[in-house]
Structures are given as structure tokens and as C-alpha cells.
């Protein structure tokens, strides 16, 4: 390890600020360089502002950083998916067995501010308005530009950590030195953000403790609650076809789409036209890398290494797990090269697993949650979790309420999904199942579950 145990982090977003805290707590000297201004001074000016779903993996990391209590003061509980059918019916599909198994809606900007505060309190130094322009890896010098006065700053480093998101400048610099095996798969769908304001009495306009979904086959709308009694609404549409962002191009066309397909949501969004025309469409893509580090000189974490689509609510949680894992490997390993290699070996397979599950969850959310066969399998899933808690756990629960490796949850989830398909084949209700056969099949096909 470097004699002075110094790490330079690129990016003071969620992952960068959290990693800085964890390392500073362990006695590392940490400098963080952020291209934007300090959000505590000028207000949050991030990119995507989709509300984030905080789950157990993320909360575990926040507890280690002593930030969980402050974050949870601003979080809103979401017990499950509130599905809005075309005919106006609604159905709450719980995420877990009770209120001990929920997720939390948090505001990206507010969370970033909390994490910056605790990073500085832990001893990390954060430098704002510093955009990474280039890296001389041989000399171990990084060059930054101040966007206020265009001045340049050459900074020596022991090692760089890229926590600068999907468009990572550090990743680009690393790729100029060594092939990282980078590839990006675009989803072919994009999103627009809208807003449901508070009700006239100042309260929530719809059920606050749920993630609302309007599934419509190839497209959907979702709404997540905020602590100021608003909802952040996100419209997901294909880029081509009808409807798509190629056919829904302005506020008038957006209103026509909502009148036809999201009629019960329309009265809740009084500024639909203005929101639609003001807010840009965001792209959705999955970033894959075969290599996350450049020997002992640089390593990537979070979206810089494995950006994913947001449909499992695990992007932030996965990045926070990265931070904990990297801090642990830096503590245990004899040198930086060993630490970075061990971190990649542990986390890359798990990142691939949650990237795949996030893609699958999009199909489920937009096209499955209101299907009869899905609802029957979901009912059986919950019943099996009650009857065989040592062998059967819904994949969503494994991912969201446990901290078992994503790769384990993915493989186990595939086995369980096939079991549900086989057991419900030819049935339209659980009442016609032979439960002795069901129980025997579960014991035969599923081994005991691994636990955290």
C-alpha cells in the first residue's frame, strides 16, 4: 500500500461521497474532485433526477458510514407496487411479507447533500468545479479544469477511483491506455419526468406508501413519492413505433396519450404539457466492461463500471455495495493491484447479474404485473415462501431485503421461476393444487437457501 494511504476519487455523487466516507473512517487520506459546483451552495444540479429506491444493501452501507438515520428522516416508505389497470382498478402487490420488508423512496439531490456532509465530517476533502481533462498514468498526474475561471490544475495521485457515472471521464482515460472491453446496449426506450403536486389540502394526492405503476404492454408510467408530498412521475416509451417518443413529441400529443392510456393519472398532473416540453428525454442503456481497473493506478465503481437500467431500483444499492467491498479489499490487501483485482473478481459477476435482472424487471413491470398467469405465479410464490422459508424466497426479496450476492439470487431465481411455471401449468387458481405434491416438489428441487 502507498505509505501515506492516499486515494483520489473522481466524482462526488452518491458513490464517490460514500466511498470517501468509508475510506476516511478507515484512516485513508481522501481527495474527491467533482466537475459540478457544491449542491449545498448552488442547489442540486444533477443529471437524472429519478427518485431512488433505497433497499437493504444500500441501507447497510449507509449504516456503516453513520448516515442511515439522517437519510431515513427524508425517506418515504413504499410497501409495494400499486398497479393501475386500464379500467381504473388498482391492486397493491406487496414487495414483502409485511412492513418489515419495504423499500424507501429517496430524493437523489437530498441524499447527495447528506453524503457530502458526512464525507467531510469524516475527513475527506472535496474539491468542486474540477473537471477531469486528462490523466498521465505513467507519471501519475491527473489534470483538472476549473469551469469558473478555466484554470488548470495538475494533481499527483497514488491511485484514482472513478465514481463519475455512466459517462465517466476516468473510464475514457483508462480506455486510451488499455482495452476495457467496453460495450453499451441501448434499451430502445427512453423516459420523461413529470410531477404530481400535493393535494389541495397539502397531503398526498394518491396512496403515498407505494410505487405506482400504470403498465401498458410496451410502455408504462410510474410514480414515486417524495417527502414534500409530491410524486415524481416517469413516462417510459419506446423510441420508435406508436406510441413512442417519435409520435408523442409535444405537450398536446402527451395529453392525448394520457387521455387514452393513463386516464386516471391525467387529473393528477396539472402541468403535464409544460413538464413534457420542458424536461428532456433520458436514454436507457446497460454498460458492460470486462475490466474495471488499470493495475494499481485506477479502478471504476458504480455506474462508471456497470451502469444499468433503473427497473429493479438497484443501481444505487449496487454502487453502495461496491463502495463497501472496495473499502474492505483496500483494508485487507497487501497492495493496490491486489485490492483492485480482488474487488473486480467479487463484484463484476454480481453486477452482470443485477444488470440482467433489471432488464427482466422492465418487461415484468410494463407487461406482466396485470396478467392472470403472473398473478397466479405471484400468489404461489408468496405461499411457498410461507410454507418453505428455508428453501423458497421470492427473487425480489433476495435482491431487495437480503444481501446475498446478486449472482446467487439470479441463479436461484431462475430455478424458482421454472418451478412456479411447472406447478401452475394447467391451473387457474391455487385451490386446485395438490399441496402434498407441491411440497414434495419444492423439497426435491430446491436446496436450503444461503443466508447473509
From TrEMBL:
<keyword id="KW-0560">Oxidoreductase</keyword>
<dbReference type="GO" id="GO:0004502">
    <property type="term" value="F:kynurenine 3-monooxygenase activity"/>
</dbReference>
<dbReference type="GO" id="GO:0006569">
    <property type="term" value="P:L-tryptophan catabolic process"/>
</dbReference>
<comment type="function">
    <text>Catalyzes the hydroxylation of L-kynurenine (L-Kyn) to form 3-hydroxy-L-kynurenine (L-3OHKyn). Required for synthesis of quinolinic acid.</text>
</comment>
<comment type="similarity">
    <text>Belongs to the aromatic-ring hydroxylase family. KMO subfamily.</text>
</comment>
<dbReference type="InterPro" id="IPR002938">
    <property type="entry name" value="FAD-bd"/>
</dbReference>
<comment type="pathway">
    <text>Cofactor biosynthesis; NAD(+) biosynthesis; quinolinate from L-kynurenine: step 1/3.</text>
</comment>
<dbReference type="GO" id="GO:0019805">
    <property type="term" value="P:quinolinate biosynthetic process"/>
</dbReference>
<keyword id="KW-0274">FAD</keyword>
<dbReference type="GO" id="GO:0071949">
    <property type="term" value="F:FAD binding"/>
</dbReference>
<dbReference type="GO" id="GO:0070189">
    <property type="term" value="P:kynurenine metabolic process"/>
</dbReference>
<keyword id="KW-0662">Pyridine nucleotide biosynthesis</keyword>
<feature type="domain" description="FAD-binding">
    <location>
        <begin position="7"/>
        <end position="332"/>
    </location>
</feature>
<protein>
    <recommendedName>
        <fullName>Kynurenine 3-monooxygenase</fullName>
        <ecNumber>1.14.13.9</ecNumber>
    </recommendedName>
</protein>
<keyword id="KW-0285">Flavoprotein</keyword>
<dbReference type="Pfam" id="PF01494">
    <property type="entry name" value="FAD_binding_3"/>
</dbReference>
<dbReference type="GO" id="GO:0009435">
    <property type="term" value="P:NAD+ biosynthetic process"/>
</dbReference>
<keyword id="KW-0521">NADP</keyword>
<dbReference type="GO" id="GO:0043420">
    <property type="term" value="P:anthranilate metabolic process"/>
</dbReference>
<dbReference type="InterPro" id="IPR036188">
    <property type="entry name" value="FAD/NAD-bd_sf"/>
</dbReference>
<keyword id="KW-0503">Monooxygenase</keyword>
<dbReference type="InterPro" id="IPR027545">
    <property type="entry name" value="Kynurenine_monooxygenase"/>
</dbReference>
Amino acid at each position: 500500500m502507498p505509505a501515506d494511504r492516499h486515494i483520489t476519487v473522481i466524482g462526488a455523487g452518491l458513490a464517490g461521497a460514500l466511498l470517501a466516507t468509508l475510506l476516511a473512517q478507515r484512516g485513508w487520506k481522501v481527495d474527491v474532485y467533482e466537475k459540478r459546483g457544491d449542491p449545498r451552495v448552488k442547489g442540486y444540479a444533477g443529471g437524472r433526477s429519478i427518485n431512488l429506491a433505497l433497499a437493504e444493501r444500500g441501507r447497510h452501507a449507509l449504516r456503516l458510514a453513520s448516515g442511515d438515520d439522517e437519510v431515513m428522516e427524508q425517506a418515504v416508505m413504499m410497501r409495494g407496487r400499486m398497479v393501475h389497470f386500464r379500467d381504473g382498478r388498482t391492486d397493491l402487490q406487496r414487495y414483502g411479507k409485511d412492513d418489515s420488508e419495504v423499500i424507501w423512496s429517496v430524493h437523489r439531490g437530498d441524499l447527495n447533500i447528506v453524503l457530502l456532509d458526512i464525507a467531510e465530517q469524516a475527513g475527506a476533502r472535496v474539491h468542486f468545479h474540477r473537471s477531469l481533462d486528462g490523466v498521465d498514468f505513467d507519471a501519475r498526474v491527473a489534470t483538472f479544469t476549473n469551469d469558473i475561471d478555466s484554470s488548470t490544475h495538475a494533481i499527483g495521485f497514488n491511485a484514482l477511483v472513478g465514481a463519475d457515472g455512466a459517462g465517466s471521464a476516468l473510464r475514457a482515460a483508462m480506455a486510451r491506455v488499455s482495452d476495457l472491453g467496453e460495450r453499451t446496449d441501448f434499451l430502445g426506450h427512453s423516459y420523461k419526468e413529470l410531477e404530481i403536486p400535493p393535494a389541495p389540502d397539502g397531503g398526498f394526492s394518491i396512496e403515498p406508501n407505494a410505487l405506482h405503476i400504470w403498465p401498458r404492454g410496451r410502455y408504462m408510467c410510474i410514480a414515486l413519492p417524495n417527502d414534500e408530498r409530491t410524486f415524481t412521475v416517469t413516462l417510459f416509451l419506446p423510441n420508435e413505433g406508436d406510441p413512442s417518443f417519435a409520435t408523442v413529441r409535444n405537450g398536446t400529443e402527451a395529453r392525448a396519450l394520457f387521455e387514452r392510456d393513463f386516464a386516471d393519472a391525467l387529473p393528477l398532473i396539472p402541468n403535464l404539457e409544460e413538464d413534457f416540453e420542458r424536461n428532456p428525454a433520458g436514454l436507457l442503456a446497460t454498460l458492460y466492461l470486462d475490466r474495471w481497473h488499470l493495475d494499481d493506478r485506477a479502478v471504476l465503481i458504480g455506474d462508471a463500471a456497470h451502469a444499468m437500467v433503473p427497473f429493479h431500483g438497484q443501481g444505487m444499492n449496487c454502487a453502495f455495495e461496491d463502495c463497501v467491498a472496495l473499502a474492505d479489499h483496500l483494508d485487507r490487501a497487501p497492495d493496490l493491484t491486489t485490492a483492485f483485482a480482488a474487488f473486480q473478481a467479487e463484484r463484476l459477476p454480481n453486477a452482470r447479474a443485477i444488470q440482467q435482472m433489471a432488464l427482466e424487471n422492465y418487461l415484468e413491470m410494463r407487461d406482466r404485473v396485470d396478467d392472470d398467469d403472473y398473478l397466479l405465479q405471484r400468489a404461489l410464490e408468496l405461499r411457498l415462501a410461507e410454507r418453505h422459508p428455508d428453501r423458497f424466497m421470492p427473487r425480489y426479496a433476495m435482491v431487495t431485503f437480503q444481501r446475498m450476492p446478486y449472482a446467487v439470487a439470479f441463479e436461484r431465481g431462475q430455478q424458482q421461476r421454472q418451478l412456479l411455471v411447472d406447478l401452475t401449468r394447467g391451473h387457474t387458481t391455487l385451490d386446485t393444487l395438490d399441496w402434498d405434491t407441491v411440497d414434495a416438489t419444492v423439497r426435491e428441487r430446491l436446496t436450503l437457501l444461503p443466508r447473509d
